[in-house]
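Input chain follows. Return structure tokens only.
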Amino acid sequence: MDHIIEIEIEDRDGTVQKMEVPTDVNLSLMELLKACDYEVLATCGGMALCATCHVQIKSGGEHLAEPQDQELDMLDTLPDADDDSRLACQLRLTNENAGLSIKIKGALQ
């Protein structure tokens, strides 16, 4: 079975790139974005405490795990968060997430 899926990432400047991501390494989407040199502060290190890894799910969100209370509480603090918002540190991608499309929105300071 193939453990590589392709997702689409839109950066803050509107640049869209496809990215192949492994689904068998147990990294969060935030860690994968940082590994691919996207600017994600991730100040809290992935604990759902800073919201700097805020992403908007453009499509494919129905295959993601439901957000937990701590993630929802953090999203509530963001002025630009909406129903499509998630914290990338809380998302672990599986083969079902092939074709996911996200936009990076987190703050840069």
